Amino acid sequence: MRSSKTIILLILWACGMSAAQNSPPASRSSDARGQLPGTAVAAMQKIDPERIRAHVQFLAHDLLEGRGTGQRGGEIAAEYMATQFALAGLKPAGDDGTYLQKVPLVGLTPLPETTFSLVPEKAPALDLEPLDQYVAYDQTQQSVSDVDAEVVYVGYGIEAPEYDWDDYKGMDVRGKVLLMLVNEPPSDDANFFQGKALTYYGRWTYKYEEAARKGAVGAILIHQTDMASYPWEVVRNSNSGEKAYLKLEGRPALKVAAWIQLDVARQLADRTGHTLNQMMEDAQSRNFHPMRLPLRLKAHLATRVRPFQSSNVLALLPGSDSRLKREAILYTAHYDHLGIRPDMPGDNIYNGANDNATGCGILLEVARAYSESVEKPRRSILFASVTAEEQGLLGSEYLSRHSPIPASKISLALNYDDVPPLGAPEEVEVTGAERTTFYPVIEALAKTFRLTIRPDSQPEAGHYYRSDQFSLAHAGVPAFAINEGVKYKGHDAAWGQQQADEFTAKHYHQPSDEYHASMDFTGDAVMARFGFALGWEAAAQQGLVSWRKGDEFEPARTNRASGRE
Length: 565
Hints:
Number of strands: 22
CATH class of the largest domain: Alpha Beta
Number of helices: 16
Shape: globular
Distance between the termini: 47 Å
Strand content: 15-25%
CATH architecture of the largest domain: 3-Layer(aba) Sandwich
Structural class: alpha/beta
Mean pLDDT: 91
Number of domains: 2
CATH superfamily of the largest domain: Zn peptidases
CATH topology of the largest domain: Aminopeptidase
Helix content: 25-40%
Low-confidence stretches: 1-34
């Protein structure tokens, strides 16, 4: 165990490294003067890729032990972010005059005595092996839960009246275990589940939530790589060891929230007189009806339950307009990663350099630029480095309910997550921004920055719903992430796509996501400047940014604005 003195010295060293790199880089956005006041442009041009590098180098250091939620390294990362906000002169916006907003969490660790058996009426039981064949958590946060319940196949597990789709057809599923597919019915029709683009109905979080709302005791998702957009290893790594949940606040919860391998689902179908391919095909029709299977789940879930607190790190730059300062632009980036896996041989530290030390470095540089601008924006600027993103967007979900500036008064939220340090970008991705009334401003500024807006290359993967912008959008706040595309100066798009594919295959949520001196943070600085300009423009708007009419998040915005939350 390293001494506290060693950790403090390391933080002071990193802070000094960050402060020492004060030479402004050449700006790729000098003609942004037509969009921003000169003082803001001058501050924006001081955004320095080497400062971002220094932050990433520190946050991804082995001494931070992977910045695990509720772990020592995660707490050090939160203190580091708070220290940097303080050095920038920003006001604390957390609890009791501090930069830290305490987030009540519960850590759940499945214990070896857990058993998970799927028992057909007329065939041998399938006693599944944890991690290799299934993962499961008890969302009721009990130390022991026993389940012996009938299994009902509910297709995609979606009830969406606006698309005339109902997989439940009024069936009473209280006390049942629901077997369902990930994703949503495939379509090229933009008016039907947004065509190829995944909506929230396709996300596993919605499926668990809907099953709990309907009184089910459990839900089992069938994993399929092309439908989930990631391999089983991602499910396994994300559900190994302790998993954190927000402390229950009266919300319904499942005793069994599980995934099973595709091969297990095939065996189940065979042993209950069905074929999985036919079951999946049936689920693609509006005429699908839920099907009781001659099958029971018999499970004994033994869980180590650890209540604890983690922290969001919040800082505020008050606006210059006496009326509009009560409203805000929000910048977010999660500081947590997956921590240490003590049972793993070899390198077992999930350093999370790209994911998401890069976003934190960008957030800190944007905050510093705002604080050093002689002229301040009209609306306030709220900076949030949130916890527990890797645990299911928990920190941002808590923030959306407990923001120091209410969600109804946040005009726009801009998120940074996993911005690859690969050089000078010629493209920007702002997936979800096209759904807001702010999009024309984004298009104009992208041209000013000589950036081509790249459409989401994998809309079916639902990346929009997999980072913290979703938590804010779910609360009604127009929100999206800012990231690079795949075209970089000196390379073609195929090269950029190759880098992205290689990172996903070999480093995403792996210990090999580490800092390297060869990283080029030019693009991270460009994304920081672009986000700075977007936030300043949004802060100057006459009214709040809105969702476009008919968007799935428009009702949440309208309800909050009218007090009908």
